[in-house]
Amino acid sequence: MSKFEKKIIIIKPDDWHVHLRDKKILNKVIKYTGQFYKRAVIMPNLKDPITSCFKSIAYRKQILKAMNVNYKFEPLMTCYLTSSTTPKELEFGFFKKIFIAAKLYPHCSTTNSQQGVKAISDINCVLECMEKIGMPLLIHGEEINQNIDIYDRESEFIKNTLEPLRNKFPQLKIVLEHITTKESVEYIKKHDCNYLSGTITPHHLMLNRNDMFSSGIQPYLYCLPILKKNKHQKALRKAIASGDNHFFLGSDTAPHLHKNKIGSFGCAGIFNAPSSFLSYVTIFEEMKALKYLQAFCSENGPKFYNMPINKETITLVKKPYKVLKQINFGKNKIIPFLSGKTLNWSLQK
Ligand code: DOR
Ligand code: ZN
């Protein structure tokens, strides 16, 4: 990294957690990820989820077709686990590099998770196989139960599901995705090993639950896991500022049409691709931790996945960057995170 904070040169980052959707939305949003990132882990929770090698190959083709030559990145595909997933399908997909990892959505935990897993014991043979072949398990870590408060879903998941799962499969590589709590930070730090890491989103680093209820309700800040108390936000910020290499970038950019964000069924998800990377830069600067920016954005992820670190670099300059206001879709639109706001860092073209 350059000594002068007016300009930063770092290895080109990767985004280890991205929702691109398909068809028209995919075509419109893809360039924002391609603008900043070299590789991106693509979430499989389409309406018709990516549950097989066959579907994954077709989806990857669709992604590549939607890409513009100027905004290219490598999509890394994942398999959506259901109670019918077979070890054979996963093993084949992993060895043929069709899948980089498999995603566990607890049943009805978030967008398009109706086919998610009801009980971990339903996928024991799949997890055993993943542990054996070294295939990472990406977890949406929330315990879904009407008796559990929405703000406690993540910590209950760690106690009731993650801890027993890790005891049963100690060498299974796990990413606890989009962590939002102090308990998750502590859990990952305590189990300092090569088998467990966590990704952190820019919105959970920048905001807390007060922001969701300021000047009325803010449907655009509704995501899952939901924004938590300020003490949790602080713990996440401290975790990245500590330079601990068990944490890395996963933006969880998740576009939804405006009508679906504000309708009577408001979808969870924040579309942050136009500003995610520059938001991370801002946060590291605020935390006086710019020296760890490159590790978080470009090194810790590939190390976890046993992949090479990118060769390209990107240059950031301390120049105001106005975040895109909206993307139009005929009569509809998608409004990005920090819409119309100004960040202090820009990409040097
Ligand atoms: O807020 C979220 N949106 N959280 C998720 O886990 C899924 C995502 C989506 O797909 O919209
Ligand atoms: Zn997600």
Give a short summary of the structure.
The protein is globular. Helices cover 35% and strands 16% of the residues. It is an alpha/beta fold.
Question: How would you describe what is shown here?
Answer:
By secondary structure, the protein is of the alpha/beta class. The chain has a single domain (15-274), classed as TIM Barrel, CATH 3.20.20.140. It is built from twelve helices and 15 strands. Helix 3 packs parallel to helix 4 (124-133). The radius of gyration is 19 Å and the shape is globular. The protein starts with 6 loop residues before the first strand and ends with a strand. The mean pLDDT is 96. It binds (4S)-2,6-dioxohexahydropyrimidine-4-carboxylic acid and zinc ion. (4S)-2,6-dioxohexahydropyrimidine-4-carboxylic acid is lined by residues 19, 45, 110-111, 140, 223-224, 254, 268-269. Catalyzes the reversible cyclization of carbamoyl aspartate to dihydroorotate.
- Contiguous uncertain segments of 5+ residues: none
Morphology? globular
Helix/strand order: EEHEHEHEHEHEHEHHHEHHHEEEEEE
Q: Structurally, how many domains make up the residues?
A: 1
Mean pLDDT: 96
Strand content: 15-25%
Widest beta sheet: strand line-up? 2-3-4-5-6-7-8-9
Q: What CATH architecture would you give?
A: Alpha-Beta Barrel
CATH class: Alpha Beta
CATH H-level homologous superfamily name? Metal-dependent hydrolases
Enter the CATH topology name: TIM Barrel
Pfam families: Amidohydro_1
Binding site for Zn(2+) 1: 17, 19, 103, 252
Modified residues (N6-carboxylysine): 103
Domain Amidohydrolase-related: 15-341
